[in-house]
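Deliverable D5.2: sample structural annotation.
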Amino acid sequence: QELPIYSQYMFNEYLINSAYAGTYYFTPVIINHRNQWVGFGDAAPQTSSLSLHGTLGKKSAIGSSIIYDKTSPITRTQIELSYAYQARLNNNFILSLSLSGTWSMTQYMYQENMTYSEMTNGIIDNVNQTDENFNEGDINMGLILLNDYFDIGFSIRNLLAPEPINNSIDDKVNRVKYILIHGTYLGQNNSQSPIALIPSFVIRKMGIITYDDLFEVDLNMRLIYRNRIWTGISYRTHENTMCALIGFNTPKAFFGYSYDIGTSSNLGAYHNGSHNIAIGLKIGGQKK
């Protein structure tokens, strides 16, 4: 998987769009770990991240994240630094724009009987007999329109990546452009009620013009009680995955856990689901 998948982005929207930097009244420091496809074997993806962001003056914000993604025998470590600018359009709407620089370090560690041809029919794969390491820089950009009742935005990952051609076997794909479109709606909730329902969605599209290998939609619904305890469900289309989520929120910290159940007959029968945990600290913060 070129782009790490999360089920806890509701706790950490910065992971899907750096334009969220500075939109909180505090500075969140968040650790996220996802253990994907438990029981699938050593090749099952595992992803860990550390992120933080905060305001810089009245209209600017900065943020950073470190992501470590391992799908044996390939590991990728990515460092991202971002700058965001928030423009107040009127008394109700804010537009946040961000630009990020990324540096990715990818490593392939060859092990005997690791390649597909060796495992299935004992044929040595001469192409993948040595270790490989390469580093690449790229750019991400994001935009979000938000107010007290909703937010909607999009993010483009790996803006400088080449656009592969689907039917060309000669294309060496180290990274691919991604488009993410997302939104959250709060408008039907009563501020006097202790209970709130929050629907949201995320659309992932691999490639922009010529490359069309993935189109995936997450549909989410959260039930929150007094802004302290919440639970939710999510459905991810590409893997036919159902996800159950729980979380706790305090004035200084928050915790979230999710469990994904894959229902796809092609993949779901070979693993025992995916676990995702998020732990965050709220540093500083203004009264308003």
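Annotation notes: Helices lie at 116-121. The chain has a mean pLDDT of 85.
The annotation will be released with the project's public dataset once the embargo ends.
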